[in-house]
Amino acid sequence: MVLVNNPGTWSAVYAPLRHADWHGWTPTDLIFPFFLFIVGVAVPLALGRRLDERHAHARIVWRVVRRSTAIFALGLVLHAVSANFDAATIRIPGVLQRIAVCYLVAALLFLWTGWRVQAAIAVGALLGYWALLALVPVPGFGAGDLGKEGNLAAWLDRTVLGAHIWRMGRVYDPEGILSTVPAVVTTLFGALTGRFLRGACPARATVRALAASGAVSLVIGLGWGVYFPINKSLWTSSYVVFTAGVALLVLAACYWLIEIKGWTWWTGPFVVLGVNALAVFFLSTLLAIALARVHVGGAAGPPRAIQTVLFDTLFRPWLGPAAASLAWAVANVLLWLAAMWPLYRKGIRSPI
Description:
64% helix
């Protein structure tokens, strides 16, 4: 998302690096569910070890609640800065807020329930969400309207949150209240996968199981999408199943490359950024806000944002518009990779 969220100019961005306008998907629409899925995978790997070591249950719960609260608070800080600390318009939902809620629910369910209960909750939530959006009438729009303004999730966000929703969406929030329910399911699917990975299944059998599950999920998601369109902003049930399928296939490929073939030469940058992923997301967003907000004067015209000056000077003269915009985004990724590398070498990890 550092790459996606920081183009040199939003007027020139390659199509795969944009979100789908509404129904449908692009590669960019896979990033957030992939992150929630891998958060879920990490839950049994991390908390399961603590349970095996007989850590006090209350202590583990406290760690989960504290971490979730901190992530949620960081999301609010980003929105407060973006809104110039205007309490009347600060957006309450958000990416970090959704991560916090999904992690909290998935972790607590892992600690207090078995995999059968978790699977039943996941299936029930997806079917229930589908039923709610298809059958519950929305005032002024009726039932089954999946447009940006007329769907039940958007109406609930406007009713409950008022002005505290995504300003660009105006009538809906892509990380809103109701759509967080199926997002929790994405994390639960990851948790179920993590539980499977903790087992003693041989490596090649693990890859086959991941790949088969991924293929089945992908097909089911695409089929369901005919009746309940794949849509990231609504986080539709078909989107959950489809993206979980793609995530399982990617995980199977990584497992085969790393655990079976031993090809780890390419993983370094992903590890460096991965162990401090939330810190990178938070700090890169703050930097982007600062570069857009701080203006410098020019002899030939009015003051311009620092980002505009740097982009026009260092990138735009040498490349086409879209290529220059992508080059700026890649430079952002390399900047944060360089910043995180010394921390990784010293064993410093993000506390959340």
